[in-house]
Write a structure and sequence with these properties.
This protein is mainly alpha-helical and 249 residues long. The N and C termini lie far apart (184 Å). It has helices at 2-32, 36-45, 51-63, 67-76, 83-96, 100-113, 117-198, 212-224. 75% of the residues lie in helices and 0% in strands.
Length: 249
């Protein structure tokens, strides 16, 4: 029974190996023909996924532009013989993902293992890209800062201009009001002058002395009307003053 099971297991393993061989060949052929999706499908069917199969599967994902999946598979590879190639390809993958700093570190680690002109070229290219990117960002920041300062200055100028216009408007309004007030005051003064002129009292002239003839005339008129009254005798020129200031009545 044990012998039968052992034979069965060996047969299954052999069959699996045959199938893996078939899938690996199909994957290689598809990869060479540029059919990376088909290569991925065949590599995924391989049962014994050792580091070499993982490397080729990751490389197929990379060629299919599925960079996230490729990077995850590269990280799983432990074979030290594949370390340089793994780091080089990880640098390429990270560069495509826009992770420039991580890509640079991957290339630098690869170059510590061995010097390679392609890896060196990629490293220097990324460093130059980073430098230009930093310069571009600085220019952008400076431009934004300049625009902000210009906007601030424009706002300040507009504010000052608006304030000047307001002051000018207020001054014009004040001048207008003063002019109106002066006009009103002038009109009031003119009216007051007219009123004062109109209401100007007559000179307090001393009445002319009444003659004796006029006195007798008034007495005669009063007597005719039957009004018995006495007029205040007024001193006339040439008359004698009453002695001892005694009134005649």
């Amino acid at each position: 029974m044990r012998k039968f099971l052992l034979i069965f297991i060996i047969s299954i393993s052999a069959f699996a190996s045959i199938l893996d061989f078939k899938y690996i060949n199909a994957a290689k052929e598809a990869y060479q023909n540029g059919d990376y999706k088909k290569a991925i499908e065949n590599y995924l069917k391989v049962e014994d996924k050792n580091d070499k199969i993982l490397f080729n599967l990751a490389d197929s994902y990379y060629k299919a532009k599925e960079y996230e999946k490729a990077f995850k598979l590269y990280k799983q590879i432990k074979d030290k013989n594949l370390e340089f190639k793994k780091l080089h390809n990880m640098g390429n993958t990270l560069a495509h993902l826009g992770k420039i700093d991580e890509a640079i570190r991957a290339y630098e680690k690869a170059l510590k293992i061995k010097e390679d002109k392609d890896t060196r070229f990629n490293l220097e290219l990324l460093k130059k890209m980073k430098k230009n990117q930093k310069k571009k960002q600085n220019n952008k920041n400076n431009k934004q800062k300049q625009n902000k300062n210009n906007q601030k200055n424009n706002n300040k100028q507009n504010k000052n201009s608006n304030q000047n216009n307001k002051n000018k408007k207020d001054q014009n309004k004040s001048n207008k009001e003063n002019s109106k007030e002066n006009k009103n005051n002038k009109q009031k003064n003119q009216n007051k002058g007219k009123k004062n002129k109109k209401l100007k009292p007559k000179p307090n002239l001393k009445p002319a002395p009444i003659s004796d003839m006029e006195v007798r005339k008034y007495e005669k008129m009063l007597n005719k009307r039957g009004v018995n009254t006495l007029l205040l005798p007024l001193n006339t020129k040439g008359e004698r003053k009453y002695e001892n200031n005694i009134n005649p009545w």
